[in-house]
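Protein data:
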Amino acid sequence: MASDWSFEPAAVSNVFWQRKKEFELACDTYGEWVLFAVTDGEFRYRIGQSEGEAGFGDLVFCPPETEFRREVVRPLTFHFYRFRWVPVPWTPERQAEADPAWSPPRPCGAVAVRDHARLSSAYAYLQRFENAEEPRRLAVAQAMFRDLWQLVCIEGLVERSDEPQADALMAEAEQWIRRHAFESLRLRDFSDRHGLSAVQFTRRFQAAWGQSPIDFATSLRLTKARSLLLETRLTLDEIARQCGYENGFYFSRIFTRKMNVNPSRFRKMNRL
């Protein structure tokens, strides 16, 4: 019988760090749970037995009283949360499912979020309220944190339900899109070669990866675009071409729709 309670994170504090080139301490230990939610750049980490590299799309959790070793690989922009786990009653929907995956084990190390569009939207809202008064800012930070945690739980459920039906062709499709994302990408080149209609391809990819092929390619392009905006002086047309778009106008329209801020404004707000 499932427990009547689940647990979710409650933010104690939130700080937004921009373009951090190195950590003041290569190793630190915290008295409470912490989260690094990376919006740009990369860093290496080692937390207990967990180690790797984290970038956009990764949420890096560290339990209390655990050594957190870290090194910046590319200038790092991230939200730093201190938080605690609080009990919450199960909803009727959760009790009906009686599925403990709704409250997965407390993580240690990086957890990858696949829905980059939703992640980008959450980060955009956090940044919009960065200069608000403290009670309001922390309330927004907590709401976005709770939203991201629920997304992690839901993606975990999807991943578990898909495990017995792993789709090798869609794994190949994911790698193919990664290789060609920054070119003049034609998804039909892949679907036609494997005898799939556009609708069949989209449905199978969505089932395997939680987003459509075009949304996945767009997330890869925008990740690269953010880095180029902050790390170079390239024009929008030049960035567009390097990210697979025909021109700066079209690139700007896509970037603004997905990020809730236009490229020029994003560059001005985040570049040091």
About this structure: Residues 134-162 form the longest helix (29 residues).
